[in-house]
Write a structure and sequence with these properties.
Elements lengths: L3 H10 L3 H4 L1 E3 L2 E5 L2 H15 L7 E4 L20 E5 L4 E10 L4 H17 L4 E8 L1 H15 L8 E7 L5 E4 L1
Parallel strand pairs: 5-6, 6-7
Antiparallel strand pairs: 1-2, 3-4, 4-5, 7-8
Length: 172
């Protein structure tokens, strides 16, 4: 998918601040809500998705009854998959975390990225950290620390989406 990075950058630039920090009663500046952000990002990606593209964008596809996972094995549910459903043509897995993510959540996402880029042969693993500037950079640093020394270090791209700007890749 030649223009994927362009599509992702444009889609993230269309995610407005109220989806990055969700306004709630009692929270003056809003709060981060990963699912709210992901739904809006999915919407923006679908708007830009090329009709002729053989890959399908799917959100939160569980792997129940998938032949690669044993009956009693924990089955990951990634935020986004870009693939040809029912075939072994897997382009990208995307995991998303807000700037307020804890280390446990980051480590779970890295495990999911590892599973899909190694065992399931996804070509790209993309980790998007979204939020406001300083918080986002700090969380991205914690992600990079956890990727250091991992076998997937070169397979996973870290993208930062700071509110009001398009997401950009900071490592691969």
């Amino acid at each position: 998918m030649e223009n994927f990075e362009e599509i992702l950058g444009k889609a993230t630039s269309e995610v407005t601040a109220n989806y990055v920090k969700f306004p709630t009663l009692g929270a003056l500046k809003g709060i981060y809500r990963e699912r709210v952000y992901c739904y809006e990002l999915y919407h923006q990606l679908r708007r830009l998705w090329p009709d002729e593209c053989r890959y399908t964008l799917n959100g939160e596809v569980d792997k129940k009854a998938h032949l690669y996972f044993a009956e009693n094995e924990k089955k990951p549910i990634p935020d986004f998959l870009i693939h040809v459903p029912g075939e072994e043509d897997n382009f990208a897995i995307i995991e998303v975390k807000s700037a307020s993510a804890d280390n446990k959540g980051i480590e779970k996402d890295i495990e999911t990225l590892q599973e899909f880029t190694t065992r399931l042969d996804y070509q790209r693993g993309i980790y998007i950290v979204f939020g406001e500037s300083n918080e986002t950079r700090e969380t991205a640093s914690r992600v990079l620390e956890r990727l250091e020394g991992q076998s997937i270090k070169g397979k996973v791209e870290l993208w930062i989406h700071e509110s009001g700007c398009p997401a950009h890749k900071v490592s691969s």
